[in-house]
Specification:
mainly alpha; two-stranded antiparallel sheet; 55% helix
Length: 585
């Protein structure tokens, strides 16, 4: 049957706060992967590429057109309502079938008029007529089409107590009635999370899974697996849902595209941040099939296959290696060039989880030629894709000396540095982390000589100056890492400077930023005052003995003392009396 599809845009979820980790050779792959798991749901839900709720309105070309115009048909509705109210099955069936045809044939069925005629309670009651399966079927069909309308119209069907009756009909001896019942429940569950949970509470999962048996007629199976894709959306991990995995897993080897697409969609939900189902799916035969489907000519099959692969590589290193052993990187390179934004973004996210792995897995990404494409995306793609490419490149900087050198030779430094001008705090953190990893690897390359990677950053206009400015950022993960880069690689060395870290901290009581001012050593008679880390306006007399101080954070906080690359410490200064403290611009 043709179907009417509804589109949905998922609400964005807040990203979890990114944990900073100390650099070590090889990086912590599990920790890095967990960071990506935190954004997996955002990719799943935020501005989803017209992800289908797939509420369907059943129509059929076999249904003959009712004569004359729609108005003529509507004029007969009172007569048909009267027939429905008769005690005999023949009149009830004739009236129900007439109204079902109006709801099925017209492109814009007059659902509101039909509901206003008062037929809804009769149709719901007819679902109990086990003695008249044809009447049950026609009533279920009409209710299915009403439930495919607006959310308010779907709610009318629910409020009429149709859900428990449809749930009972999932085990009807009549196959047409079973098919229509699962279709109706899929429509209702597809309306949103509230009604989906309501439907599931009526025990529909097990009888629906029973319809996925190989002996089930293809029409019933097609509707059952579609309903399952709605039941599984945003589901919580449970033994009942986990039991669906083997049945759905078998269906991905089907050739029928509707069944294949819906089975893959259900599995993409079931494997989302679910270690149990990931372990069930991550076996060679299934993974090889998923990799094969990445290049299928139908995007409704490519997209859920890619999402499952992306979920699998959020697992441990052995599961990621299983996917790599099935030659996933070759189709991923093709998908990075796809014209469809959703596919390109999902593919980039998947690669970022692979580069979060061990050095062998990073090397596989290099060997398959994905790094130049990632850098191209980091330079030119839409922002959503650039963010995923940034994760992929930053993760890859945790590789070996040779791997980091390859990234640099491919031009990774400049696009990472360009990210420092963005406003997204999370992207600023991973860009600084990637650059810091590169600089630390430069120290290893130098073996005591000059760091060969420092000039790469210095030659990028305003790059080091931007890192200096980020020392003023309110986000602790940003200003701490920026200060570390400046003080470690770009501040002028002072052989007598044993000053402690001056990065600001937050007072637990007041919530204010607190800056430690170094206590200067006593000056020799006649000597110039010691240099201060603060650059205030010159004053006639040196400041009194310094002590820690705090002040409130302004609307756009600039937390104070920061090191300037290659600059000596400024001259001493004192606060003007009774004046608020401000930073120099």
């Amino acid at each position: 049957h043709p179907m009417e599809q509804k589109k949905v845009v998922w609400d964005a979820e807040e990203r979890a706060e990114i944990r900073l980790k100390e650099f070590k050779k090889g990086c912590d792959a599990d920790q890095t992967r967990r960071k990506r798991e935190e954004v997996a749901n955002i990719i799943r839900k935020n501005k989803r590429e017209e992800r289908l709720l797939k509420k369907r309105k059943e129509t059929t070309e076999q249904t003959p057109q009712i004569s004359a115009t729609l108005q003529t048909k509507l004029d007969k509705i009172p007569e048909m309502v009267a027939a429905i109210q008769q005690p005999d099955v023949e009149n009830q069936l004739a009236g129900t079938k007439f109204i079902r045809r109006i709801l099925s044939v017209e492109k814009k069925p007059p659902i509101e008029i039909i509901v206003g005629a008062g037929v809804l309670p009769y149709f719901v009651n007819f679902l109990d007529r086990d003695d008249a399966p044809k009447l049950q079927f026609e009533a279920a069909w009409a209710l299915t089409n009403i439930a495919s309308g607006t959310s308010d119209q779907t709610r009318l069907v629910v409020d009429a107590n149709a859900v428990p009756k449809f749930a009972r009909l999932l085990t009807s001896p009549d196959p047409d009635v079973r098919e229509q019942a699962v279709w109706a429940l899929g429509n209702i569950a597809g309306d949103g999370s509230t009604l989906r949970e309501f439907v599931l509470r009526h025990g529909v999962l097990q009888p629906t899974l029973g319809m996925l048996d190989p002996s089930t007629p293809i029409e019933i199976m097609r509707n059952a697996v579609w309903a399952m894709s709605n039941f599984c959306r945003n589901c919580q991990e449970s033994p009942e849902f986990n039991a669906a995995v083997p049945l759905l897993q078998r269906l991905i080897f089907q050739d029928e595209e509707d069944i294949l697409s819906d089975a893959l969609t259900a599995l993409s939900y079931l494997t989302d941040s679910n270690a149990t189902t990931i372990a069930m799916i991550c076996e060679p035969r299934t993974v090889k099939r998923l990799v094969q489907l990445l290049l299928f000519p139908n995007n409704q099959i490519v997209i859920p296959s890619l999402r499952i692969i992306g979920n699998l590589v959020t697992g441990d290193e052995s599961q990621t290696q299983m996917v790599l052993n099935c030659n996933v990187l070759t189709p991923l390179l093709t998908l990075l060039n796809n014209t469809k934004k959703t596919i390109k973004k999902e593919a980039t996210w998947t690669v970022s989880n692979i580069t979060a792995g061990n050095t062998k897995q990073i090397q596989a990404v290099i060997d398959h030629g994905l790094i130049p494409m990632l850098i191209f995306l980091l330079n030119t793609a839409d922002w959503d894709i650039r963010k995923e490419a940034a994760w992929a490149m930053s993760n890859a900087t945790c590789g070996t000396r040779e791997q980091v050198k390859y990234l640099i030779d491919c031009g990774a430094v400049k696009p990472l540095a360009d990210l420092l001008k963005e406003d997204d705090p999370k992207i600023l953190v991973i860009a600084l982390e990637g650059l810091e990893n590169i600089l630390k690897m430069g120290d290893i390359e130098a073996q005591g000589a000059s760091n060969p990677y420092m000039p790469l950053l210095e030659d990028i206009p305003d790059a080091v100056q931007t890192i200096e400015r980020l020392q003023r950022h309110a986000h602790p993960g940003i200003y701490q890492r920026a200060a570390n880069i400046i003080t470690t690689w770009f501040a002028e060395e002072d052989t007598e400077d044993d000053s402690p870290d001056i990065a600001p901290t937050t007072d637990a009581t007041t919530g204010q930023l607190v800056f430690a001012v170094q206590q200067a050593a006593p000056a020799a008679p006649g000597a110039a005052p010691a240099a201060s880390p603060f650059n205030f306006a010159p004053a006639a007399a040196p400041a009194p003995a310094a002590a820690p101080f705090s002040f409130g954070v302004p609307p756009q906080p600039q937390p104070g003392p920061f090191f300037a690359a290659g600059a000596s410490q400024p001259a001493p200064a004192a606060f003007p009396p009774q004046q608020p403290f401000t930073f120099p611009q």
